[in-house]
Design a protein that fits this description.
Two copies of one chain form a homodimer.
Chain A: H1 7-28, H2 34-75, H3 83-118, H4 120-156, H5 162-209, H6 221-258, H7 263-290, H8 299-328, H9 333-358, H10 363-370, H11 376-389, H12 392-410, H13 419-435, H14 437-459, H15 464-513, E1 517-519, E2 525-527, H16 533-539, H17 547-588, H18 601-672, H19 682-718, H20 720-726
Antiparallel strand pairs in A: 1-2
Helix pairs in contact in A: 1-4, 1-7, 2-3, 2-6, 3-4, 3-5, 3-6, 3-14, 3-15, 4-6, 4-7, 4-14, 5-6, 5-17, 5-18, 5-19, 6-7, 6-13, 6-14, 6-15, 6-18, 6-19, 7-8, 7-13, 7-14, 8-9, 8-15, 9-12, 9-13, 9-15, 10-11, 10-18, 11-18, 11-19, 12-13, 13-15, 14-15, 15-18, 15-19, 15-20, ...
């Protein structure tokens, strides 16, 4: 069976190879007129300059944390000696995935704009294939990191010892913390950067000066386009790298612990998520190739084509997971596959519900647009109401997915004995949802790429048809991306839940390391390594009647709000600075609004950069420090409460923010399409206010929340040794 | 010791007597000019007409629920036979408290306006004493209901049997459900009514037509003033009646269960909260009389006087609680008093923090006002950010209060054995915070009374000085009300936590009723009545590793958001209708804006009434149905998860909404005071948008959340028998 493992690095290499291939092909396309090239170059430099600065800050944070981990590991024996290194590689690869994605995006924008001028289909191909570069890079690097660590740790720890398999898999989890840390910085920093520029540009440009989006006369426009790259592309890449690896690593760790004492079954349970991910790579590549249309394809053809690609991979992974579990020789092979199946269905439902609430093809967003007739205040009230109400079905859906994936894997025994198997089922469901990330991320990332192309077209003053077409591609992307987003949201909840169990595992390891005994359910004192999850739950009284647990729940819920508030304020503050600067330029640079004088783009870029650098540190550090403090002060019971509270409140808050933001965006587009007075009307201005408020909702605070939840889990896991020592 | 009980009905009668006294005295004051009388009459009739309609709807709901409870009790023996009646009285008295408060308010408005024309101090006296009528009515009726049921149930069940004391106290808890149901309808219905009118009036009046608040030319102005009465006064009365009784009843139930097997101690633990409340009544009356100033008192004098009243009662209750526990003969008398003390301190801190974030004397709201310079979008973004960030200290404070009040009462043993005593400490802390409700509610309710007086003055076109003075009184009220609000918020969280434990008690009773056995921690099967909380926790696996519990947490968090979203949408929808109507009147009724033609106030009143009636039903019913469904489908583990999730997310969400709304309101006032351009400037309009968005935040969705949390707990408690039967 060991040989099966080599499918994983092979899939990794395959993914990276195709990513390289698509990248080369994209680079060969024509970048268009000298102006287009110049602007693309400008955006590229700005984006790279920012990313370099962000990485510098993050590097400092990583070095500090790695040193702390090293002290804990070598100084106090509170941790595995490999933790500092695993942590660093996770951060490195996550950053690399974001970097490659962003580099690709900045090369693709002018090329997409150029191609789309000739045909819609040509534009789609370049944008989508560029998105695929990011998708395949993320999964390729993810599987590479996993493969490397598996090989290293297998060489160090004898995998035929059942306890060692636990040590190996939980050590690997810590590279997840590196990835989460990087992802949070990328999402928060990038999110603040992009929304500060976007909000600032919109308020002065659209609302006050009445010039269109991405107009070269707007001094914030370059910053806005740079922001799209560092926020939507690099941020998204780091984010999904973290989700992808997190789900696989958590499942491996749960598999090792569920079958403790039986190394053969442990191995199978560890291999299953890796193999499903490896198969997912192949299916993604097949799916990407399925996205092809004849020249002169209609919009409907394009939509059908994109849908075909993602649906094909999703259906195939559902089918093939039966094969994986069967071939690995699980006795409950079809039940485990049904766990995966539940997750996939849940992802599809969440995607569809998101689409229903945020697309202007449906009632809710149309009604939201209608409320612009009574001014911006009702647009805001109704948008917030819409977002809050929209949380109901996704939460119910994820609850069903939890119960079903747990139920199938445990034979519907909701008992303490069946707990580890059920948790494994929940976790493997998350892996199923993310296994075809190669293609779902492509459909998600290509939207921002098309958007960037539109920006390039506008700034290069190309024929308006080009912008219209990139807008069509962007809108198309929003529809097809829904499923991918549903998978990402759903899997985040499931993975976070699985990480709770991994935390208990780490507590056991910590106790074992300190040589402590645990009272088993049978009432005997046993070595902590042999303890079951219920034993640890009993030891620390992790029941909801324990006030310490409830205090944790309170703090967790509060953390979600506090974190959102901090990022929201950061955007608000920075955007105000941007507005002041843009107004200043409009007033002091003569001829700027007539297009005769060139605005000072650099100052705006600097404002965004500074704001992002400055504001991301406190909120991100909070996510690392709070779980450590809670662990030290309140112990494992408090930590589990913290993580559960953050998960419940944070997940719901994230959906609310994303959907309110999305609905405002599309309500504005609906009005721009000529409803309720159309562009330039008072109603339009009211929806622009909604869209502006929605910007930090959907692109800064909202997307950061899922990472926050997982990072807090990861920090708790890595710091479990310290917590155990104190309690 | 039984004789001590008679202090409770005596205090009740005392409170009602003084309420009557203050009411009579207020009625004797001069109501002013005929116009003032006419307008007051108009508002009074509108308010009474609405309340009558609301009570009709609520009566139907109550009858249906009472019939269901009767069937459960008499048909299936799933419940105590007294439950339907207790439920009905709770609803009745809660409604009565709201009704009396509102009636007082509508009589006081013109009289306050008239008195304030002569002196600030005279106005303060009438408004504050009218607020005291409501405060004393609420506590008087609360203690009356508690006394009556205690006497009845003591006559029926022999209180010398330890099990009977549990039955008596948990039966009494169900009248809490009646109060909660009434309170939720009052808050949601009243909240929608008032904010629909307020938002509608502001959008057209202030933003579009540029006429001041409460201008008689505005057709929505009567509806707005009626709304202030039905929402802020009647809603607040029903709400705090529920909180007050809920905290006392929960503590009685916890006391009975903590000392199970020792009837003497049970009695003491049951009497303690009642006695503290009774003493609180006396202290409130003393405090109310301490609020007196010389004629011609300066603003500072008034503020000092109000503060003196509330602080005096709070300090005295802290001191006297030592006496109560000592005289009752608790061995840990001073520790229990420190539990009460922790709660009081927490309430004060929460109040101060609220003030810091929402008063324009401090940086946060000033900065918010400043952000109006970059338009309404940044006002909204920063206001939401401010509200979210402002949740941090209150949540941490309440966490400290939980740990301290639990710790003192349990001797800082955070173990399962000490659990009942610690929970009793948490619960008694909530009682301490609400014991002086007679005066804190007076300081809270007198703000809306002053506001109403201002409305009357404006509509009666009195000298602008009158309006200015009522505004001063209103602002004064906001400052002094902070402590009372802190107590209300803090006690809601503590009571909700205590209700979790009461739920477990009801589960035990349900199991006992079905004749089921429970496995004790010692491993033996025992009768459910003898089971401890940890036994029940173990039986249903109420640990956070149980996926059913986590599913409950998700649903609970979602419920808080869903409920807010529904009420927010209701306000948005209704306000849009109001805007359309007001615009229509401005356009079609000639001379309306010149003050020559009389607007059609009635149509606006009807829009508000209809909206409130129609929209409150679904969201309120949801709060009743969801916990029942969760109980039936997921069992006690799911219910505890639900309640914890709702508590964590709902409590935080409530603070966020209240503080964002408060800050927007005061940021607008700050601009109106002449900062950043002052009244009529673009910046002012931007803050008006913020204020309008904040209206449903702080007056509809926010205040309903605390009741939602407690109502869901109460429903779960009452329905525990059904849940047990199904699981």
């Amino acid at each position: 069976m060991d040989k099966l493992f080599y499918f994983v690095p092979a899939a990794s290499v395959l993914a990276l190879l195709f990513a390289w291939l698509f990248y080369r092909r994209m680079r060969k396309a024509d970048e268009g007129t000298p102006t287009m090239k110049e602007i693309a170059q400008y955006v590229r430099e700005g984006a790279m300059a920012y990313l370099k600065q962000q990485y510098e800050v993050v590097t400092v944070v990583f070095i500090i944390l790695a040193v702390i981990f090293a002290v804990m590991a070598y100084g106090f024996n509170l941790q595995n000696p490999w933790v500092p290194f695993a942590f660093l590689t996770g951060g490195f690869f996550s950053g690399l995935a974001g970097f490659i994605g962003m580099r690709t995006a900045t090369f693709a924008s002018a090329r997409t704009a150029n191609a789309v001028g000739k045909s819609l289909n040509g534009g789609l191909r370049i944008a989508f294939r560029s998105g695929a570069v990011m998708g395949l890079t993320v999964v390729g690097l993810g599987l590479l990191d996993i493969s490397i660590w598996w090989l290293i740790l297998n060489a160090v720890y004898d995998p035929s010892d059942t306890h060692n398999l636990i040590v190996i898999t939980t050590t690997m989890l810590t590279f997840g913390m590196g990835a989460s840390t990087q992802a949070l910085f990328a999402r928060v920093g990038g999110g603040i950067y992009t929304k500060c520029a976007d909000v600032g540009a919109d308020i002065v440009g659209k609302v006050e000066a009445d010039i269109p989006e991405d107009d070269p006369r707007n001094p914030a426009t370059i910053a806005d386009n740079v922001g799209d790259n560092v926020g939507d592309v690099a941020g998204m890449g780091a984010d999904l790298y973290e989700s992808y690896c997190g789900s696989i690593l958590a499942t491996m760790a749960l598999g090792a612990s569920a079958f403790f004492g039986d190394t053969t079954m442990q191995m199978k349970a560890i291999f299953a998520p890796m193999l499903i991910a490896a198969i997912g790579v192949v299916l993604s590549i097949i799916g990407i190739y399925a996205v092809r249309t004849k020249d002169g394809a209609s919009l409907k053809d394009l939509l059908g084509s994109l849908g075909r690609g993602t649906n094909l991979s999703a259906v195939l992974i559902a089918v093939l997971s039966f094969g994986v579990f069967y071939l690995l020789g699980f006795s409950n092979w079809w039940q485990l596959s049904l766990s995966v199946f539940s997750g996939l269905i849940a992802g599809v439902i969440i995607g569809k519900v998101t689409e229903y609430y945020t697309s202007h093809s449906y009632k809710p967003t149309q009604k939201l647009a209608e409320s612009s007739q009574t001014g911006s205040a009702t647009v805001i009230i109704n948008g917030i109401g819409l977002g809050m109400v929209s949380t109901a079905i996704p939460v119910i859906t994820i609850c069903c997915a939890i119960l079903l994936s747990f139920g199938f894997a445990s034979g519907f025994h909701f008992t303490q004995e069946a707990l580890p198997f059920g948790l494994y089922g929940i976790s493997i469901a998350a892996v199923g949802m993310l296994s075809t990330l190669g293609i779902t991320l492509a459909t998600d990332a290509y939207g921002p790429m098309a958007d960037n192309a539109g920006g390039n077209a506008q700034m290069s003053e190309l024929d308006p048809i080009v912008r219209e077409r990139t807008d069509v591609l962007d809108a198309l992307g929003n529809t097809t991306a829904a499923t991918g987003k549903g998978f990402a949201i759903g899997s985040a909840a499931l993975t976070a839940l699985a990480l709770l169990a991994s935390y208990i595992e780490e507590i056991k390891i910590g106790l074992h390391r300190l040589g402590e005994q645990v009272v088993s359910t049978a009432g005997k004192g046993i070595d902590a390594a042999q303890a079951s999850i219920p034993d640890i739950v009993a030891r620390y009284d992790i029941s909801l009647m324990n006030p310490i647990v409830l205090v944790g729940v309170f703090i967790g819920a509060m953390m979600a709000f506090l974190f959102c508030g901090l990022t929201m304020n950061a955007v608000g503050r920075a955007a105000s600075k941007m507005v002041v600067e843009v107004r200043r330029q409009f007033q002091t640079i003569k001829g700027i609004l007539e297009g005769k004088a060139r605005p000072d783009y650099t100052r705006c870029v600097m404002i965004s950069t500074k704001a992002a650098q400055h504001e991301m540190i406190f909120s991100s550090m909070l996510a690392i420090i709070v779980p450590i403090l809670v662990g030290v002060v309140l112990g494992p019971a408090g930590v589990i409460g913290l993580l559960s509270g953050a998960l419940g409140a944070g997940f719901t808050l994230a959906i609310f923010l994303a959907n309110s933001g999305g609905a405002w965006d599309n309500a504005k587009k609906y009005v721009e399409d000529g409803h309720f007075g159309g562009k330039g009307s008072e109603n339009h201005k009211a929806t622009v206010v909604g869209d502006t408020v929605g910007d930090p909702f959907k692109d800064t605070s909202g997307p950061s929340l899922n990472i926050l939840i997982k990072l807090m889990s990861m920090v708790s896991i890595v710091m479990a040794g310290l917590t155990v020592m104190m309690h």
